[in-house]
Hints:
This protein is α+β, with helices and mostly antiparallel strands. 18% of the residues lie in helices and 41% in strands. It has one domain (22-207): 2-Layer Sandwich (Alpha-D-Glucose-1,6-Bisphosphate, Chain A, domain 4). It has helices at 4-11, 33-40, 46-50, 185-200, and strands spanning 21-29, 56-70, 99-115, 120-133, 138-145, 149-160, 169-179.
Amino acid sequence: MASETQIKKLLAQPATFTPNFTAEHSVVLPHSFGVVFDKLGSGETVEESVRLSDLCSTFRLTTKDHITLSKDQSLTEVRCRGLPPAPSSTEPTEPTEGERTLARQFFVLQEVFPLLFGLYKHAVTISGCLTSDRERKAALYETSAAGGILIWKLRTFEELAPSESGEARTKVYERIEGRAPALLRSRVQKETHRAHTAHMEQYHTLFS
């Protein structure tokens, strides 16, 4: 696993960037919003969804804190990874009028990629955070990877009408905006689209 120095270096990369690749996908899960958000919108359970990827070899939760946004701001328009923590660190403070406080969970993980038809494996360290906004049915996943790849992934939740059998349904939509070095952009764009779709199509297994 990465050292604290490596993690700090990754987190020091800019949270705000001009994206040069994108991806989006959505799935409908046969569960209520509350059940789905607890699995996919909470920092406490972020490891479960990340480990759906076969590439993830190690995962560790690190710092948990809170950030303050104005009531006019939503996760669709902010970059939370670089925001300063709210006072009082791990426990949310009572927001002042016109503000609200959101939980932010940091983590570090390692993904292993096969090279040369599986003869070699290349490990990449990734550090990031998940910011939760249950009130507005959204979560923001932001990461910085060794090699200069930055990811901003917005996850939104929409309660749908029950199915014909009366089953609760929730639509989960994700949009990825990322930045990769110019030489890697085309490859990263293609792989991100493939891996993102495959990853979301496994979300239903979190509830079995």
